Amino acid sequence: MTNLSWASWGAIWAVLLFAVDLATIARAVTREHRSPASRLAWSVVIMTLPLVGVIAYFFLGDTSADRKSDKKLKDLRRELRRRPDADMPQANLPLLYRQAFARAASVNGFQPVSGNRARVTTDSNESMDWLVDDIEAATDHVHILFYIWLADGNGTRVAEALIRAAGRGVKVRVIVDGLGSRRLLSDPLWARMKEGGVDTVVAFAFRFPLISAFIRRLDIRNHRKIVVIDHATTYVGSQNCADAAFRVKAKYAPWVDVMLRVTGPVAWQAQRLFVSDWMVNGGDDIARYLDHVPEVPKEGFPAVMAGTGPTESVQAVPDMMQMLLAAAQHEVIITTPYYVPSEALHQQICAAALRGVRVRLNVPATNDSLIVAFASRSFYRSLLKSGVEVHEFQPGLLHAKILSIDGTAALVGSPNLDQRSFDLNYENSMMLVDPDVVSELCQKQEAFINVSLQVQADTVVNWSVPRRILINSIGMLSPLL
Known about the structure:
This protein is an alpha/beta fold. The protein has helices at residues 2-30, 36-48, 52-60, 67-79, 98-108, 124-137, 153-167, 182-185, 188-195, 209-212, 267-280, 316-327, 343-354, 370-377, 380-386, 419-424, 435-450, 457-461, 465-475, and strands spanning 113-120, 141-146, 171-177, 199-203, 225-229, 233-237, 255-256, 259-263, 301-308, 331-335, 339-340, 358-364, 389-393, 397-398, 402-405, 409-413, 417-418, 427-433, 452-454.
């Protein structure tokens, strides 16, 4: 009788567990803005890992921080102006790139604007040198957002420059991500910044992660890097506020980044992204900064900002890249630390090579994420078969994120080529057309390739069976990465 009772309870629990699995799968396959591959992958995980798969889905599967934040951000998007309160001259764009720019502009309702100038930084230290100099020269305001801010040499230099600026009457506002900058938040430097007059906001802060995990997804982060100084100067690129030695992951150092220091009317669009991030994460109402009407110099290149995220235009990053790739005539150079793209983007990259465009992909030889490194290599065979040249960067972790097209157009910013940047993280990018600036970016990309090793097709073909099984098995999870 006892055995029958245990069997009965076992059957009941099995039925309940199966029902929970089916309900979770139903949720996974009916969520909006999910690719078929992602829905299938989650369904497989949930069914093959009973209960564990369900828990994993609710912690990692929903692309939403929480309903309150989502609603607030969507409301702000409607309420905040998307363009300056003045007629801006229409940018003169080459016909080949007009559709790509139109897609980028659609993300936040911006418009491509001419009259911009940019300089490419040499390395991480120069990026911080220029930033400190600009902060020292600020007269009205400094707005800064970094995903990761460390209390190291560069992080401290920037913080102290901000404290000095606040001391002389400049309005200084800083946003950091609650996870990416968690070490700074517990460091005395953060307290010094606030005591020194710097206004601060923490994006996606959480005090009780185990409890918070049941009501919102914890790994949706603000991965943006935004700087706006006195309405006129902005920075865009991959650099966090830290030394290249990046002491939190020092064994992968140096971390190699590229930043653009940009002046011109496109800075208004970066300001709009900062203002919305500031207000949605608990900052005061600073919408008045969008009343500023930028001047549009006669000289300068056309550009547009795109601030992407799970509540913004879905799949905007791969869309922008695919449209630029479709416009390529001669050469494409892709620099990224993580290559786990959508199937559509991967096929577009291969298609460009197949139609005769020289396509070069540069990724780190050693990645700070072993799973992502394996997943990236699962794409090597099809890339090489299509004629894409794959290079693995040797002296450190190549962290720059650049797509350059024919030495003329480029997309540069914070997104990686992975599903996290496409679906989960809040990212910012700038699309531009300018032979001079893009030529500088290409020179940086060429320099990275020169210290990389080219992956040979024979090497990939001769990988052992266990290695191929491991790489391709992890690659199957790429829609979840």
